[in-house]
Amino acid sequence: MVDDDFTAQDYRLQFRKCTSNHFEDVYVGSETEFIVLHIDPNVDYQFRVCARGDGRQEWSPWSVPQIGHSTLVPHEWTAGFEGYSLSSRRNIALRNDAESSGVLYSSAPTYFCGQTLTFRVETVGQPDRRDSIGVCAEKQNGYDSLQRDQAVCISTNGAVFVNGKEMTNQLPAVTSGSTVTFDVEAVTLGSTNNNEGGNFKLRVTISSNNREVVFDWLLDQSCGSLYFGCSFFYPGWKVLVF
């Protein structure tokens, strides 16, 4: 039983694969929303939560377990690219001391329009105006940055580039702990009557440090899923993607 005047101060979330006998803690804190990372696609998981009142030591009884699963393929960086070291799950990329000239791309176009793509900068190195974090319609080798055609990105100094052109509006500089999110939605299908080039329009929102920019991105062709990528000229940058 929970008292009528019970006010939750902290929550404890646990999960397990339905084939497992043991729950494990995945979050303890005051937030009422939490994104569980590192789950396998198309596998059923059980989730349960309990709460603790202000000033209390004991937790409430567990909720009835809820079953859920994800069909989303995990976001992964491409392994084996010179200049970057990856975590075991390939969702964290560290710019190492090796020479690198190019963009580290995702292993597949796993970002779909309508979703939110998040980059969290864990550590920083020396910034360079050519640095980039962003999304693109296709992998293109031979470029040292995503500041190019058919791509949108933010540089570590906060400048935003759309198809290689710098926008007037810019975001705060990227610092350790910064979170950069991309939200992309399809606006039009087919040809558009304008002189800007491109016949497929996407509405892009990039958010960072409580600021955001919104703009239309014109592509040459329809694109339901996108690659993501990053490029850093100096070592020390570490980026988690989810």
From TrEMBL:
Q: What is this protein called?
A: Cytokine receptor-like factor 3
Q: Does the keyword Metal-binding apply?
A: no
Q: Name one GO cellular component term.
A: cytoplasm
Give the function comment from the record: May play a role in the negative regulation of cell cycle progression.
Q: What's in the keyword line of the UniProt record?
A: Coiled coil, Cytoplasm
Q: Where in the cell is it found?
A: Cytoplasm
Instruction: Output the lineage of the source organism.
Output: Eukaryota, Metazoa, Chordata, Craniata, Vertebrata
Which family does the record claim for this protein? Belongs to the cytokine receptor-like factor 3 family.
**Domain Fibronectin type-III: where?**
1-74
